[in-house]
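step 3/5: co-fold with zinc ion
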Amino acid sequence: MAGIRKDYVGGRFSIVAKPGPRVTDPKNSPFAPGRESKTNPSVLSLVSRDGMLQRLEDADGQVVKNWLVRVFESSTPAVTLDPGTLYGDMPHYSEPAYGYHYVVVASPNPASTLTTLTLEEWSNAMVVVQDRLRWLYTKRGVTYVAVYANQGEEAGSRNPHSHLNIMTLSTIPPVVDAEIVSHHRTLDRLGVCPICSMVEAEAGGPREILKTEGFVAFTPWAPSHQHEFWICPMRHATSFAMATQKDINDLALMLRSTLGGLSKSCGSPAYSLAFHLSPEKRNTKQLHWHIEVYPVTQAQSALERGYGVFVSGTSPEDAAAVLGAAARREMARLVGIE
Ligand SMILES: [Zn+2]
Ligand SMILES: [Zn+2]
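step 4/5: write tokens
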């Protein structure tokens, strides 16, 4: 294990980890029902019994069948519970890549993708993410839990079968840390949450894509990717783990409508999805949580790679018009009012 390395001068982290096996045909997905032995045993399998959702796990070689969502340790983890003791000081800072890395398979259907998941499947996957978040934040050595997903090979996905990743870190990752620092600076100076201000500024404006009862989706003012969009709770909320079932159902509708809209209006691009959540430990600084979606529609240039200055071929206002129309059509179809 190479450990987690930190850059000489910047806050950049780097982990060396083997990629998972590449699956090109969903029929061969190791995540599919009947192939449970090809993955690690499940630590959580969501099963429907008599109309109730039960939380079970594989034990003593007994595999839980007929699952709706299945969570297991990644077979090619970026962090592990047994990473060795590789510590190093600057300029070659390193620490053991200690942590938990789970795969959450969001549907038993190997042909399902994040774009085609049903509302119920999205909602069940989110309930399972909440369950794991609560459990992981009780564990030693867990400072941050990253929840993320990739759709399509260009976005780094090795298996098209719909799944999310949950990975823990012993440090708050740099992008989230920068958001938390700026969040608290604004709170201290102006007494307002910058994400609440952002929601107020973007809801109903030229960059809004879709609004539900509790969430708003919009293209950000200064995007890092073409057609990038964010999904934000309308009301101030710092704990994803504490979101109610009603919030989760609402979020499922939002995710499914916007991702479906993105796919239909932009030629099914690959995309990545990052949950920017608070570190849910006692006495840690908090963040009004949100989800950021980065479509992969154009190659990055030296300006982006070398300077962190992003160039987008489409303005966020034009992107919102296209995404908004498609996402609204998608939502109308999903709730059956088309
Ligand atoms: Zn807020
Ligand atoms: Zn963010």
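step 5/5: annotate
The pocket of zinc ion (ligand 1) is lined by residues 193, 195-196, 236, 288 (CB under 6 Å).
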